[in-house]
Amino acid sequence: MGSHKDAENPKATLPTPVTQAGRDALDAILHRPGETVIALDFDGTLAPIVPDPEQARAHPDAVAALATLAPKVASVAVVTGRPAGVAVRHGGFAGVPGLDHLVVLGHYGAERWDAVTGTVSAPAPHPGVAAVRAELPGLLDSVGAWQGTWIEEKGRAVAVHTRRATDPQAAFDALRAPLTDLAARHGLIVEPGRMVLELRPPGMDKGVALREYLAETAAASVLYAGDDLGDLPAFAAVEKLRTEGTPGLLVCSGSTEVTELSERADLVVDGPQGVVALLAAIAAHV
């Protein structure tokens, strides 16, 4: 299959996936959009990575692209490790015409925000998170209190960021083992990411959240876009679904920091800007 092009709208040019599975999935999406779920990570995929996650915001064109595409597909789901409400605020998703049925699966699916109701539903938090939160400052001091390392409160999880440390990679490497031990003592796991180590309950990952949502919507095809190690379970879920006959397109929001995703992706785009352009191009073709 060659590149899909719109001669009157060069911006709507669709790239060609590098794999046959990806090309088949793109064809399925284009021919049966009403049976497709578009699933997207937030940070690094819809929003550029920034030193302070509290300052992260969706790409300026993201909401418009989603609002154009969403009415043409079965559903759009944002699948994120952030609290659902935070992703909604930082994404600017609430009250947007066209995004009436957007779903945000926050905390790896432990929380859910539905645009149709504007409310978040969630179970009680894991007690280990509070215990870890209390011990973290002392642990960071004991391993040298790396200048610039800081703790992000995520409600149902807690994360230690090293991107602003004097030596981000050295701080990340030094903290990984002690944080893993701390998490294990309280029944949690450590999820490594792009200069961040997140301590969270087990059984919460984007693969589980995605599979459950696709089953709920009875999707006949899926596009999943992500950028970080936390997206690997979602990639694996799509790969498994493909063996079961459900076409799936894997998109990597390009990053030189994480090669594991780009090596498994059907399509690598240029960060959030590339993701937004891809969504707009799909909307122009369906």
**Which whole number gives the mean pLDDT?**
91
β content, as a range? 15-25%
Span between termini: 17 Å
Shape: globular
Largest sheet: 8 strands, mixed
Number of helices: 9
Helix-strand string: HEHEHEEEHEEHEEHEHEHEH
> What structural category arises from helix and sheet content?
alpha/beta
The residue ranges in which pLDDT falls below 50 over 5 or more consecutive positions are 1-10
- In total, the number of strands is 12
Range of helix content: 25-40%
Radius of gyration: 19 Å
Q: Quaternary status of these chains?
A: single chain
Order of neighbouring strands in the sheet with most strands: 5-4-3-2-1-10-11-12
Key traits:
alpha/beta; 8-stranded mixed beta sheet; 9 helices; 12 strands; 37% helix; 19% strand
Explain what this protein looks like in three dimensions.
With 286 residues, this protein is an alpha/beta fold. Helix content is 37%, strand content 19%. The longest helix is centred in the middle third of the chain and has 18 residues, at 168-185. The radius of gyration is 19 Å and the shape is globular.
